[in-house]
Amino acid sequence: MLSRIKDFLYRHRRKFITTGVVIGGSVFLLKWLQYKLRELQERHAKEIGEKLKRMQHYECTDRTCNQTILGIAPSLSDKIVQNLQTDDILAKLRSNPDNKLELWEELRIVAFTRLITVVYGASMLAVTLRVQINILGGYLYKAAVEEESGQQQSKTLEVQTAYLSLIQHFMRDGIVRLIEVIRPNVATVMQRYKLKQQLTLADTETLLWSIEMALNNEKGNPIENMASYTLPNPGVTLASVDGALNSMFQETLDVLESMESTQVGLANISIGFSKVMDKLAEYYMTSGTSGPNKNSNSNLNVESIANINGITISLAKLIPIVNGLANKVTLPANGGMVSNGLVPSLPGETDLMSSMIVHFLHSEKLRTLGANVYETFCH
User: Fold this and answer.
1) In Å, what is the CA distance from 102 to each residue of 106, 110, 126?
2) Residues 241-267 pLDDT 10s
3) Are residues 326 and 179 in contact, defined by beta-carbon separation less than 8 angstroms?
4) What are phi and psi of 32, to 5 degrees?
5) pTM of the full predicted structure?
6) What is the per-residue burial (b if ≥16 Cβ within 10 Å, else e) of 326-359?
7) What is the mean pLDDT of residues 346-365?
8) Whole-angstrom Cα distance, residue 313 to residue 310?
9) Is residue 339 very low, low, confident or very high in pLDDT (cuts 50, 70, 90)?
């Protein structure tokens, strides 16, 4: 019996060897596949965790950016008003002086310059801070990841503070230079209009559009040269800073000088002028219901809207309205933040500056710019 078994095993040894190799190979392959699957699942889970962590950090950065822009906007508005004061001109006009016509001419230049500066200044502030804070946010996230892996390369608090303080140049010197560019262009366009000239809402929009086109053709076009207004001169600034701040400064210049930032800035300008026209349309509708035919709010909502294109107002009456649009900033309570804290809620009846800023923060183009910048610098 034993010999028969041995003979059987000997005769079929190749089959047994082959079967053993196949079974052993299959077991090994199964174990290897299980290991690779587990490794893939762990890596996938880690990537999801890192993505979630990065998303949470970006949302925090985005919230900080919105709050910073909302917080600085009133100071920017005050700075514009300080540099384009009309109180003295108005006081002189009330005294009925001999040079009344000259004062009116001066008032219309200052009033429209102030309005245009608010639109451009708000746009440039929103884009610059969006870029700066997302560059810094990306660096901070990257530093946190490196610290977890034992690499200590985080930006110091001094560097962070110095970097964010760069925007003070715009609040101090940049806005003055912006006014110096805008004012002569406003004066040139306003020469085409007489104080007694009657303007429809469309005529007023054409006036503003003409100023915008004049600025677009300006050698120092504010939007295309945004960084030269909002950030200090690199030749002076970079001479006395450390390498980390130098690098961040240059990277910020590169982003602000990019086509994407220019396009976002121009989109903001369009939003800004749209808000200006909304404010002026309210005045035109109110003017259209004044007089003997003024009845009720229903007339304001139906008749005035239907006939608004036929309503005319003299430039002299429009100047005080334009002058007042940029005169006051009252941000919504709690910065107008919605429950998730990411984007401010759209304001109802509020001033021009805060209305523009909040609409900028809702702009998909501005938010996409910030997200792209953050994603670039967090890796």
Assistant:
1) 6, 13, 36
2) 567 888 899 999 999 999 999 999 999
3) no
4) -65, -40
5) 0.82
6) bbebebbeebbbeeeeebbeebeebbbbbbbbbb
7) 82
8) 10
9) very low
Helices 259-288 and 100-148: angle between axes, nearest 10 degrees? 140
> Are 262 and 226 spatial neighbours (Cβ–Cβ below 8 Å)?
yes
- Cα 187 to Cα 110, 112, 178: the distances in Å are 9, 9, 15
Structure tokens given for 124: 């440039």
Integer Cα distance of 204 and 339 in angstroms: 38
Helix pair 13-83, 100-148: axis angle to 10 deg: 150
Buried b (16+ CB within 10 A) or exposed e, 130-141: bbbbbbbbbbbb
CB–CB of 65/134 below 8 Å? yes
The DSSP code for 30 is H
Mean pLDDT, to the nearest integer, of 175-196?
Answer: 95
At 45 the pLDDT is 61
State how far the alpha carbon of 76 is from the alpha carbons of 106, 178, 325, 343, in Å.
23, 12, 14, 21
**Which amino acid type is present at position 201?**
L
**Helix residue spans in the chain (DSSP H):** 2-11, 13-83, 87-94, 100-148, 157-164, 168-169, 175-190, 201-216, 226-230, 234-237, 243-256, 259-288, 297-307, 315-325, 352-362, 364-377
Q: How many CB atoms lie within 10 A of CB 202?
A: 11
Burial of 260 (0-12, 13-18, 19+ CB in 10 A): middle
Interatomic CA distance for residues 298 and 311, integer angstroms: 17
Tell me the C-alpha distance between 350 and 236, whole Å. 40
Q: Give the type of residue at 104.
A: W
Can you read off the two tokens belonging to residue 296? Answer: 């009720």
Name the residue among 208, 186, 185 with its Cα closest to residue 269: 208
**Residues 331, 73: contact at Cβ < 8 Å?**
yes
Q: Which of 170-184, 220-234, 291-305 has the lowest mean pLDDT?
A: 291-305
